[in-house]
């Protein structure tokens, strides 16, 4: 996640907020000022800004691709803007409003888009360390509303939203994606991964009809006030595929007994069985064979954590998030293997 304005990482050029403000102003047709970095998606830079010709309290948000590299896959911020524009037509899936775009001239001048600022709290009650938890009733309401929203997302009519031309992913391809990720890390960050991958591949369930997927759906990627969601955010890895990929990932974050990074059993947080029922009652597609998808979710979590640990080592970091990720990877792989039994 970007922690400092204009510093997407040691391998990328610096982004100057003043230049971004100038580009955003031209794209919006209104002056934009006062860019401040926000915590956001890990693949792009996120800034809060203000309209210079409006009330001082009227903010907006800029999403900017990292400069110096092609804006493809999860760095493609204009692809994120596309799905947000499409979902603006869906009443039951709340997302920020896209206000303007600028394609830039990548990789040196990265693309960006502006969207409405949505006030709210973003946290995973069971997982995030060092947080002040909302009231238990609010935690319950948020989790149940998130399950209902996920069902609405998966009911989205792809043709009506203009997303029917997107290629649909397959379950074998999803396994291969994380196998390839494991193939780039040292052996100590992948103990038993090959065996889990083989077992996943040998037991692939029949796929459901493809739907619109968020890709990292959890309470930590929503903005909430009180007991309700106000917006679903961080759409870097949206795709078309089996709905149970999203559902299993969401339910994993609700289960402190299954998630290796869980810090607590948050008061008021519904368990996975309750949220699975809420999702189904709200019209979500099939919830069959979720044990296999839970194993795949843990395998994905292990692979992503291994990549984080590898990159932390490359930067010479011996403590912090990367080091913790390295410690957790073997347990994640073991849990994935257990879920398949």
UniProtKB/TrEMBL annotation:
InterPro entries: ACAD10_11_N, AGP_Transferase, Aminoglycoside_PTrfase, Kinase-like_dom_sf. GO terms for molecular function: transferase activity. SUPFAM superfamilies: Protein kinase-like (PK-like). It comes from the Bacteria. Residues 35-276 form the Aminoglycoside phosphotransferase domain. PANTHER family: AMINOGLYCOSIDE PHOSPHOTRANSFERASE-RELATED-RELATED. This is Phosphotransferase. It comes from Actinomadura physcomitrii.
